[in-house]
Amino acid sequence: MIDRRQLPTRRNHTTQKLRVGGQRTLYVSVHQDPQPAEIFLRVKGAGCDSETIALYDVVARLLSLALQYGAPLEKTAEMLHQTKFEPAGQVTGHDRIKHCSSLPDLIGRYLLLEYCNREDVAHVQAEASQQETA
After folding, report:
1. Per residue in 74-105, pLDDT tens?
2. Strand partners of residue 89
3. What three-state secondary structure class fits 124?
């Protein structure tokens, strides 16, 4: 039997606010650790009913549980990356991710880029991003 990773009672998280197609706002909070093991997702915006909000909460719980039982973050994020359904479109709020094909695609792309050093999922390369902010 695989043991579940125990997390400390007090944990730091980083929260990223992302906006998709001017319709939805997605907040992604990730446990700040070399191997993140806790993710929270909050979605808001037009057409965002209680069922949609609850489904993203369940996705976050399942991701967290998988990570705590040893699933590799990269493989987990790859499962979300490149899924296609609405809402999709232009992304604002991140300097290197500029569009997505769905909210799960955005979540996967964000995790791959920020925590797995997967430069191949970025729309803007790191050098160009740093020049834009300078």
Report:
1. 999 999 999 999 999 999 999 999 999 999 99
2. 100
3. coil
Enter the DSSP assignment of 97: -
Coarse DSSP helix, strand, coil percentages of the chain, rounded to the nearest 5 percent: 40, 20, 40
Q: Among 121, 126, 102, 125, which Cα is nearest to 110's?
A: 121
CA 127 to each of CA 17, 43, 80, 131, 133: distance values in angstroms, whole numbers, following the listed order: 22, 30, 26, 6, 10
DSSP reduced 3-state for 60: helix
pLDDT digits (tens, 9 = 90+) for 31-50: 998 889 999 999 999 889 99
Confidence of residue 130 (pLDDT cuts 50, 70, 90): low
3-state secondary structure of 35: coil
Torsion, CA 115, CA 117, CA 120, CA 122, rounded to 10: 60
